[in-house]
Amino acid sequence: MDGNRDPVPLDQIRAAAERIAGRVRRTPLLAAGPLKQPLGDGELLLKLECLQVTGSFKARGATNKLLSLSDDQVRRGVITASGGNHGLAVAYAAWQAGTRAVIYLPESTPPSKVAKFGTWGAEVRVEGAVWDDANSVALATADRDGLTYLHPFADSAVIAGQGTVGLEIIDDAPDTDILLVAIGGGGLISGIGSAVKALKPETRLVGVEPIGAPTLKNSLAAGELVTLPEIRTEAGTLAPRRSEAVNLEIIGRTVDEIVLVSDDDMRRAARWLWFELGIAAELSGAAALAALMTGQVQAESGQRVVALICGAGTDGLA
Q1: How far is CA 245 from the centre of its chain?
Q2: 184-201, pLDDT tens digit by residue?
């Protein structure tokens, strides 16, 4: 890929914002204080994508992608593989368009999330232990049945849709010093990084991965895509064994640092969110906050820190 060309330029993200307006929510950026248990010396704000349609930021990318398809591609129906959140977002976008949606999920998907798919009329099929296994079958099914495949993180329209989160953050808090974002396949932080670094390049962008699934951290260290031999985290939406070239390229250019947190760290952060703010976040949704709680990311007095709460759920409270 040409390193001088941005694969997801700012005008593409702004076009996505216009395209999906009225179909997804502009989520609040909430000042966390006052707090019984403060986290560091900086001012903490929370971008509540857990309040997004279907419960995560994924509705942005899936909706933008579906609205970018031809009438024929929409009519044939769509298919994807997901750890849960992207699948729900595709089901929602397909429901809006009145077309068929087939969603492949790994066996690790929480039953509470699987139960939501029926609400949007999607066909759910469970295949394999992790996302990569489900994805292989979804790709084969798309070819066999003529369905339109929607990739969860390595698609420019999906990345642009996720980048609208970054537009909103900089619009609501232009003086953001540190921005914390969880990483799964890398679509979310690719979109946010593309938007934020174009608008306010001095913002420190920190990615957060599980210790048991350091897909992008290992790939950046190796200077090439790495396939993890195994996944050792219960945060299934942050657990692909391999990312893709477009995500690695954008992340390498826009993300200042990637830190790792344990499942227990994420659980503590999820319980903090529930105790302090009454917010029910899944493990992945609490990952950004866990980086602050563990001290791996520290803010100085007077700095403004934004943590993205990317998904709703109750697995972090178990």
Answers
A1: 17
A2: 999 999 999 999 999 999
